[in-house]
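Thread: quick sanity check before group meeting

JM: Hey all, I'm pulling together slides for Thursday and realized we never actually wrote out the predicted structure for the chain we discussed last week. Dropping the sequence here so it's in one place. If anyone has concerns about the input, flag it before I start.
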Amino acid sequence: MICSILLLIILPSCVSGTFVVNVTQTSYQAEENQDITLEWTFTTNPHSSSTSLNVFCELLTDLKNPVLFHLHEGVEVPESQDEQFAGRVQWDKDVLREGRLRLNVSRLRTEDSGLYLCYVFTDYGRSSCRCWLNVSAVRDRPEPETLNTTSPSNTTSPSNTTSPQPESRSRIALYCGLGLTAAVLLGFCALLIFNCCNKSTDNKRNHQHFSPVQMSNLSEKLAN
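JM (edit): ok, ran it. Output follows.
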């Protein structure tokens, strides 16, 4: 909305009598660190000398109006240029005789944004015209994702260092089961052997308690 209002103000101010100063574009859009060309046109007179041409361009701001370009009697005056634009403005001398003022501003900054006013004075007339330049900051672009080309042998997985793999777990469980089974079998065999040994010992002891006479009596009783 504000830009639209500014453009409405810009257009009527570019005409003054028969001498006309105009802009190729009323509005420019760019990003910082880019280059841009601002261009004005003005009425020419074949009978006028180039030494009668004076140009004064500035940026309109709230605090100050830094000078963008100054041409006095056809000769550039770099001393008048503000330090904000020092070394960043080039002008095309060849097209000036055609009534075209072309200024190339390099390495744009966000503080270059604003309304640019250019006065043109000649011995056959004077006028001015304005254009708007908006320089936006470069947005942070996310870095593109790259595929992981690292060999698996060179990388260490956290799971390998914290807990065994499922295959290792199954092997460990199998070994534990076999060991437990073997222990139970060995214990059971030891118990059988121990019982057998006790029984044989008891039998021997029982045979030792009966005398031959007693054994004979016991046999007679069993026969009767």
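AS: nice. Confidence is low (pLDDT under 50) at residues 1-13, 155-161. Residues 166-210 form one domain.
JM: adding both to the slides.
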